[in-house]
Amino acid sequence: MLYWCIDSLCLGLQYMHDNGQIHRDIKAGNILVDSNGEVRIADFGVSGWLVNAGTQQQKAKTFVGTPCWMAPEVMEQIHGYDYKAGIWSLGINALELAKCYAPYAKYPPRKVLILTIQEEPPSLDSYDEEDGMDDMEQLGYDVYEEEFSKAFSQLVEKCLQKNPAKRPKSQELLQSK
User: Fold this and answer.
1) C-beta atoms surrounding 60 within 10 Å
2) What residues pair up with 21 in beta bridges, in sequence order?
3) Residue 41: beta bridge partners?
């Protein structure tokens, strides 16, 4: 299910990006999965267009989104951002799907902003396993140690590059394992 969801998110992002739109708030709360396993992206309330009057804009400069899933360039507000901010959010969602909560989810928004900008990008290794397992057990979930494939770890690493120019396009992600 994990890979199916990520693949479906990539397809949705590719469609939006190919049509000049950026979602700006890709997070678990805005991803719907129906009883057939079909994945849909929801809540376009803060989405925006990188096309204005038929002209492609290079960057957006609004501070929009939810901190745990927000790309560093959106937080910094220096050079603006483009569709690659959605690729960062995809990487955060991949971690959330794997670990059941987003990196930095236990911190208040201001701390999330500081950690995202100042620290190395999150990865599967950045989770405090004991903390996460305790939270899951308290919610009534059966907790077990799971290993993730090298391909999954590489996907997360590609998506969570601090430099947006180093992040792949959604089409490139769809062609990877």
Assistant:
1) 19
2) 49
3) 31
Residue 26 and residue 97 in contact, taking contact as beta carbons nearer than 8 Å: no
- pLDDT digit string, tens, across residues 106-160: 999 999 999 999 999 999 988 865 555 565 566 665 555 567 889 899 999 999 9
Q: What tens digit of pLDDT does each residue of 91-108 get?
A: 999 998 888 889 999 999
Answer yes or no: are the C-beta atoms of 86 and 118 closer than 8 Å: no
Query: How far, in Å, CA of 163 to CA of 167, rounded?
Result: 7
Those residues whose C-beta lies under 8 Å from the C-beta of residue 165, and which sit 6 or more positions away, are 84
Nearest C-alpha neighbor of 86 from the set 148, 177, 175, 173:
173
Contact between 13 and 23 (Cβ < 8 Å): yes
Residue with tokens 């391909």: 151
What sections of the chain are H helices per DSSP? 2-18, 72-76, 84-99, 109-118, 129-138, 150-159, 170-175
Q: Are 85 and 24 in contact (CB under 8 A)?
A: yes
pLDDT digits (tens, 9 = 90+) for 159-170: 999 999 999 998
Is the Cβ–Cβ distance between 95 and 132 less than 8 Å? Answer: no
Active site residues per annotation:
25
More confident residue, 58 or 171: 171
Q: Taking Cα atoms as reference points, which of 17, 151, 175, 160 lies closest to residue 82?
A: 17
Strand pairing class (51-52; 48-49): unpaired
